[in-house]
Amino acid sequence: MLRDPLAEFVDVGIPAEQPVGAGVATVVAHVNETALADSREKSLRSTRLSCLESFVVSACTGNFGHAPVDVRIHPRAPPPWDRVSARFDQSGVAMTDQTILITGAAGGVGSLLRPRLSRPDRTLRLLDVAPIPAPTTREEIVVGSVTDADAMVDACRGVDTVVHLGGQSREHDIDNVVELNIKGTYVVLEAARRAGVRTVMLASSNHAVGFSHRDQVPGKHLPADTPARPDTLYGLSKVGIEAAGRLFHDRYGINVICARIGSWFETPPGVRGLATWLSPDDGARMVEACIAAEAPGFRFIWGISRNSRRWFSLAEGEAIGYDPQDDAELFADRLVTGDEPDFLADPELNRAGGSWCEVELGKPMT
Ligand SMILES: NC(=O)c1ccc[n+]([C@@H]2O[C@H](COP(=O)([O-])OP(=O)(O)OC[C@H]3O[C@@H](n4cnc5c(N)ncnc54)[C@H](O)[C@@H]3O)[C@@H](O)[C@H]2O)c1
């Protein structure tokens, strides 16, 4: 328990003995806006707020930078105090709204997510090496690489959640996938840690477990934390990003959710997609669940919709509030043109990684 210089007005509790982890201070003060009609009171409010800010800045940059910091200020003074919230990152930068950093935001998934994550009280910080078209007023554009440590530290400043999509999304040579995916994810996690980001969602893939077979799943559904069985060098790099997430959670307590994404497209891509599809709306629901999760720790979830023909478990996602609403079955008539597909007999449909289990290793996909 700490007393601050405004002890007459506030009560400040800091759980300093919590385990080591990201440091973000949450400040809740109370100001009655209606009582601030005259300028004298307005100036009183700004004086008080600046006092609070300087206190919190010193708390954040003082002894608490290494641990989760939750500062609550309960004013005992009469009105004009009522309600004002402010958040500060480790370096003392005020975080007035929620800020979500999306890496790889210019890509296919980023483009599906942007409009669906947009909220009046939320800033989307969009990072990519490629140009990002038509930013709205609630979007900030950052041109930079996930492998650039300085750029990533800057990009993570004041961020609540990182949605890490950027990097190589298809099969490529080993140097490419190690650099863009494994090193890139390490750089993102380290920058997130330094900035005190609470949660990082990592875009992993079905190809991290591509050689898992449907006919060998003990229950009906493949658990989200199924051990690694990569089908490609790309899949190998996704195993690497998951391990990087585990490392940063175990070392620093940062929340890391590895979403093993199935097929996140506008519509299911082919018959296999009847099992693996993640609809655009469900993708956004999944990311919202990751953002809202209070203390998810380290975990795996499957990034798929509530497809009738799925063989991937939704239980782990449901545990953090992911409740998919869409079903690829809606497209079955269009996709199944001949005989009913046999998901067990057809080797492509029987494996999580589908046809990627047979592509030439390291040969860049076009
Ligand atoms: N779309 C899917 O069905 C699916 C399935 C499984 C996993 N994923 C994963 O989800 C993520 C997004 O997938 P996508 O389909 O949008 O891929 P995408 O290739 O369309 O987008 C990837 C984005 O990352 C950017 N990028 C590449 N190198 C970068 C770097 N060094 N720094 C910053 N940005 C960089 C690219 O410019 C691109 O805009 C990827 O990590 C992918 O592996 C996607």
Q: How would you sum up this structure, described in words?
A:
- The strands form three sheets. Strands 6-5-4-7-8-9-12 form a seven-stranded parallel β-sheet, with helices on both faces. A three-stranded antiparallel β-sheet has the order 1-2-3, covered by helices on one side.
- The chain has two domains: 25-95, no CATH class; 98-358, NAD(P)-binding Rossmann-like Domain (Rossmann fold).
- α2 packs across α7 (280-292), α3 (149-156) crosses α4 (174-195) and α4 (174-195) packs parallel to α5 (233-252).
- The radius of gyration is 23 Å and the shape is globular.
- α4 links the parallel β7 (161-164) and β8 (199-205).
- The chain has helices at residues 39-61, 108-117, 149-156, 174-195, 233-252, 273-276, 280-292, 315-318, 332-335, 347-350, and strands at 25-29, 84-88, 94-95, 98-103, 122-128, 139-143, 161-164, 199-205, 255-261, 263-264, 277-278, 298-303.
- It has 366 residues and is of the alpha/beta class.
- The chain contains ten helices and twelve strands.
- Residues 103-104, 106-110, 128-130, 145-147, 165-167, 169, 180, 184, 203, 205, 261, 263-265 line the site of nicotinamide-adenine-dinucleotide.
